[in-house]
């Protein structure tokens, strides 16, 4: 019975593929994402012209503290979180994302302070940019479930213009990445990266600087 259902499903899929070619499905996804973005945009502090958040985001928090420039695209399953209050603690978050950024799916941007991203950022998938951690690694915190610990930040994050972050890159608190820098896949950025340099590894280290 299961095999019959599989065979019928594949036949239906083949029929649909003739009726609705791939270009059509891409167009439909784009239309849905623009409708979704229109629904969300008034909730942001700033939401620039021609910017799109793909349907649909995984988590959106504190959008009134988030500014997005013009022509920026953010992929599916994004987590954009500006935490003004968490577990009874108050914060002053501010996230600024520049113009013409291409931020791929499953990005996670989290702030209790300041995160500033310049223009033309390109990312791979599964990128983390967070200025905070759950707790401050104090002995008295270890008996508290991590999700219930107050958020702690070691400083703001600044990412310059024309930066490229590869798949699975993590940008940690207190880091500045200069203009034109390239961060290789799977790198964890714990220290400043100068402009026009290439960094890889855990922790990220510079392998080339122009």
Query: Which range best describes the helical content: under 10%, 10-25%, 25-40%, 40-55%, 55-70% or over 70%?
Result: 10-25%
Strand order of the largest sheet: 1-4-9-12-17-20
Distance between the termini: 63 Å
Radius of gyration: 20 Å
Shape: globular
Uncertain runs = none
Supply the helix-strand structural class.
alpha/beta
Largest sheet geometry: 6 strands, parallel
Number of H/I helices? 2
Query: Strand content of the residues, in percent?
Result: 25-35%
Instruction: Compute the number of strand runs.
Output: 24
Rounded mean pLDDT score: 92
Compressed to H and E, one letter per element, the order equals HHEEEEEEEEEEEEEEEEEEEEEEEE
Structure notes:
- The chain contains 2 helices and 24 strands.
- By secondary structure, it is of the alpha/beta class.
- A 6-stranded parallel β-sheet has the order 1-4-9-12-17-20, with no helix packed on it.
- The protein starts with a helix and ends with a strand.
Structural topology:
Blueprint: H1 2-19, H2 22-40, E1 46-47, E2 52-53, E3 59-61, E4 66-68, E5 73-74, E6 79-82, E7 85-86, E8 89-90, E9 94-97, E10 102-103, E11 108-111, E12 114-117, E13 122-123, E14 128-130, E15 133-134, E16 151-152, E17 157-159, E18 164-165, E19 170-171, E20 176-177, E21 182-183, E22 188-189, E23 197-200, E24 205-209
Parallel strand pairs: 1-4, 2-5, 3-6, 4-9, 5-10, 6-11, 9-12, 11-14, 12-17, 13-18, 14-19, 17-20, 18-21, 19-22, 21-23
Antiparallel strand pairs: 7-8, 15-16, 23-24
Keywords:
210 residues; alpha/beta; 6-stranded parallel sheet; 2 helices
């Amino acid at each position: 019975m299961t095999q019959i259902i599989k065979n019928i499903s594949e036949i239906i899929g083949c029929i649909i593929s003739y009726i609705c070619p791939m270009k059509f499905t891409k167009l439909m996804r784009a239309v849905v994402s623009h409708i979704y973005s229109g629904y969300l945009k008034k909730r942001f502090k700033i939401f620039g012209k021609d910017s799109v958040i793909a349907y649909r985001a995984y988590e959106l928090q504190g959008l009134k503290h988030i500014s997005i420039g013009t022509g920026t695209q953010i992929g599916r399953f994004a987590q954009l979180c500006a935490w003004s209050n968490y577990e009874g603690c108050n914060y002053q978050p501010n996230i600024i994302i520049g113009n013409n950024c291409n931020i791929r799916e499953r990005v996670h941007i989290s702030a209790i302070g300041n995160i500033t991203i310049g223009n033309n950022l390109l990312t791979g998938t599964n990128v983390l940019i967070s200025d905070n951690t759950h707790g401050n690694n104090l002995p008295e915190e270890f008996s508290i479930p991590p999700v219930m610990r107050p958020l702690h930040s070691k400083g703001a994050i600044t990412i310059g213009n024309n930066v490229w972050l590869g798949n699975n890159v993590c940008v940690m608190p207190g880091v500045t990445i200069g203009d034109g820098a390239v961060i290789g896949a799977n790198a964890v950025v714990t220290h400043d990266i100068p402009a026009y340099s290439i960094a890889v590894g855990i922790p990220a280290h510079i392998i080339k600087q122009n």
